[in-house]
Amino acid sequence: MNHRNRKAIKITPKRITQDRRKKEWFLCLKNDTVLIGKIIRKTEKGVVAEHWNEIIPTNEKEVFTKCHKCSKGNFNSNSCEFNIKYSEWHQIVDIQKVKGKLVLKVPISAYLTEKKLILNMKHSQEVRIVITANTIENAIIQNNIANNEIKRNLIELCNKLKGKEIVEFYTDGAMEINKVTGNKMGIGWIAKLENEIVREISFSCSLEKWPSSTRAELGAIWTALLAAPSNSQVHIHTDSKAAIEVIEKHREDNKLCNWFKVKNRSLLRQILSCCIAKNLDLKLHKVKGHSGNLGNDLADYLAKSGISTNNVLNIPESTFKDMMFIPKWKDQIIESSLRSFVNITTAIHYETEWSKLSKIVEITNQNQYNI
Prior knowledge:
6-stranded mixed beta sheet
């Protein structure tokens, strides 16, 4: 890019994190003056930063050197320091160090003022760009569902429900316990519109990894929400009290540490994120299982049928904006309480090593012979 167009760039805003291990470079405004600083330490409310001064620019790049004393900061141990709060305006900047000097990769104006990018070139021919806009419902399905058959089914069902202001779903999950091949899960749901069960609007598939009855129930609820139209009121009827309680408990919970204590973390995040993205008014209702309720009985049948299907639903990774990592074990997301998982895994490791000790092997062999 021609250097005369560098000031037309607009940078995506990035803010200072509260992770005390990170020492970011940033710019801020103090008394309408732009300051460049490097974080020295972080507190609960803000940061203490080392001040850097601009010197004569080179090739239209802003160049800075470490400030030792000025009226803008506080002199301390041969360095000039200043404070800002997290709530004050600031921007993370990309830098490179050249011989003890700081060079910004893009100009300060890119962080402060939005300008149009004007390229210093002439177009020899007209360029026509065609953009195909997708609906938000279909885009969410395509972004989160990997299985093509499940993706196609959900998009078709979503199109059938398009425009509905109130939608009801009967959802259910099923789990088949098999010690040889491993436990399997199935999920299913059926729609209810204007007090009528609509058999043509129903769904079922299988679910894998971290098998539990609650996980299957949550999987059914999530896929029903994926098919629901945006800006609608969605009523979920389920016989799982556990699924209702865990969703209600974590609707307003934004504390990162609490989410590491939760089972089926990715599924819960998908459910809550889907409601926010599509502006759904979610209502959860407990129904009694196997009580002759037609909607619940049909959902139960669909869930059990889903166990044996080849259409497997994979739950994509879901993170917080401040989450620096996703806990995994052997390339699988850990969906149980992280502390419990680590404790159990560590205990199994130690017990396995203990059982391999020569003295223990002798005792074990003796017991086998006595039997």
